[in-house]
Amino acid sequence: MPTVLVIDDEDMVRSVLRQFLERQSMTVIEAEDGEEGLRLLRANAVDLVICDLIMPRADGIGTILNIRRSMPAMKIIAISGGGRSHAMELLKVAEQMGADHVLSKPFTRDQLLTVVSACLPGYPIARSARPR
What are 16-71's pLDDT values in tens digits? Predict the structure, then answer.
């Protein structure tokens, strides 16, 4: 069962991602910012990181760079919704800094599952699973 670390300062975003991923039988660990996320990443066996880009204390770009330096093989999905054009620019930078995939908020469950599936090849993703 894969473990996913979700790093986002918004409680609602973390909650929704947790629900989507737990329905796929994944374990989800949550962090409110990059500092906490890096601590949890060092303390837990994680298969995938989903990281927001605009957060207090330690932003997503810096967090992605830190992950890439210490764990170059870690799969990372960057997410952002901070102002449409600004979010797209940040997502491009995140890709350049090492994010494997990017998603602009708001995104659908199917969009999320598509990139999660790409990051975890061989793990079965039930696309027909509907929210309960």
Answer: 999 999 999 999 999 999 999 999 999 999 999 999 999 988 899 999 999 999 99
Q: What angle do CA 64, 69, 60 make, to 5 degrees?
A: 10
CB-based contact 28:55 (threshold 8 Å): no
The model's pTM is 0.92
Tokens linked to 51: 């990281």
Amino acid at 125: I
The length of the chain, given as a count of residues: 132
Q: Which residues contact 109 (CB under 8 A, 6 or more apart)?
A: 20, 131
Question: Residue type for 113, please?
Answer: L
Q: How far apart are CA 104 and CA 28, in angstroms?
A: 21
